Amino acid sequence: MESETITPKQFYTASNAAVIADNSLNSSFFGTKQKSTKVHVERPKSAFGLAVLIGTFALMLVGGYSVFLLQDDFEQFQLERIESTLGFPFLIIGTVLFFYQAAVFLYSSYLYLRYKPIESVSDELLPTITIIVPAYNEGKLVWNTLLSLAESDYPAHKMQILGVDDGSKDDTWYWMQEAKAKLGDRLDIFQQPKNQGKRHALYRGFQLGTGDIFVTVDSDSIVKKDTLRNLVSPFAVNDKCGAVAGNVQVLNNKKAILPKMLNVSFVMSFEFQRSAESMLGSVLCTPGALAAYKKDAVLNCLPEWINQTFMGQPSDIGEDRAMTNMILKQGKHVLFQKNAVVLTNVPENYNGLYKMFIRWSRSNVRENLAMGQFVFKNFRKESKFGARMLFLNQFFKIVMTYPFLAFLIYFVAVHPVLFLSSTFLGILVLSTFSMAFYAKRYDLAESFWAYTYSIFYTFSLFWIAPYAIITANKRGWLTRGL
């Protein structure tokens, strides 16, 4: 062989093949070890978990060594791409987008380094809040959620808690009644006459709420004692703030391997990506698990929100992203509070996970179309650069989904060995950012699940985005069964 190093072309091919794994793992190694909001996670003690991690590293190391051995084949493949009719234009477009993504990542890293959550204000400055907990088939989980909210370090006279049972078919209503019996006047509970969807349950809460700030919390989530006051403090110091996103972490990460992987993924997408977005005043999604909204901003868009349609059908998914969009459109700032932690349950099996991702991806397609209708207009007096950059970043990912998928299919069909080796090497390189970020802030042993998640996502969930695009008009929550 002429060289014992990986050429830029070979590395670009490896990155190209593995970048799909980075769709759900935004990463950086910047930051300091987290202490106040540290999640105490269990190290992989089971033989199966250890075997999975060992297998993960074996695949990546074999992939890296294979790339070294197959350098001449990579060179030939690159030449064939350049000389083909479609290959060269695709290479140019891919290169431009690669550098654009790299620039966005570097800028996001800079913003992350500058980000600091707003510290909690005094009890006197805290606004009155209405907490809305929509519940459907959650069983005793809703009891845990309601009690964790009531036990928050927040002035009781400034806190109204509303629980809305959305026509559950299990014992959810029973546990809400039990919570009411324990909490008394601190909790009001309501039962929808039939299941109408989360959006309608929230709508009822918005209509009944008396607080200056609306807080929405999923009924399978637990908040820390200081979460609520940290979440709403930005409203007390920033008149332009219209919404605040909480910091979502995984509650059931000791039970199965999927939650362990998602725990690392969530830290990347929330603490890194949303910190950067918050510096631009343009967090793109306030998560259903924990979010706060200024009452006036909600009421301004409430009729449009509850009557939202997509391709002529009522929208029954993506209520959180839709509300965020409509508040951004009002010129308000949407921020992220890293110190407002909520622990939420995530799917523990493949069926539940892919259905959740399909719902999220469909919502992403719909709301990017909606955002495109106002983001290039004069929707805000302050700088609009950040919101437009974030929109374009999402837009390019959607637009390039099918060309990239076509390239992957061609790559697999023509050079399966090159595809596998470059993909595993790319995962090793790209996911190291995620691993290092999580290790520095939380736990070294758990951080290695970043690699496993990337492999899992690349080979078993790659189809989510293409499928969600062509089925974006479909309705249904998908995961709201017993």
From TrEMBL:
<keyword id="KW-1003">Cell membrane</keyword>
<keyword id="KW-0812">Transmembrane</keyword>
<keyword id="KW-1133">Transmembrane helix</keyword>
<feature type="transmembrane region" description="Helical">
    <location>
        <begin position="88"/>
        <end position="113"/>
    </location>
</feature>
<feature type="transmembrane region" description="Helical">
    <location>
        <begin position="450"/>
        <end position="470"/>
    </location>
</feature>
<feature type="transmembrane region" description="Helical">
    <location>
        <begin position="418"/>
        <end position="438"/>
    </location>
</feature>
<dbReference type="InterPro" id="IPR029044">
    <property type="entry name" value="Nucleotide-diphossugar_trans"/>
</dbReference>
<protein>
    <submittedName>
        <fullName>Glycosyltransferase</fullName>
        <ecNumber>2.4.-.-</ecNumber>
    </submittedName>
</protein>
<keyword id="KW-0808">Transferase</keyword>
<feature type="transmembrane region" description="Helical">
    <location>
        <begin position="390"/>
        <end position="412"/>
    </location>
</feature>
<keyword id="KW-0328">Glycosyltransferase</keyword>
<keyword id="KW-0472">Membrane</keyword>
<dbReference type="GO" id="GO:0016757">
    <property type="term" value="F:glycosyltransferase activity"/>
</dbReference>
<feature type="transmembrane region" description="Helical">
    <location>
        <begin position="47"/>
        <end position="68"/>
    </location>
</feature>
<dbReference type="Pfam" id="PF13641">
    <property type="entry name" value="Glyco_tranf_2_3"/>
</dbReference>
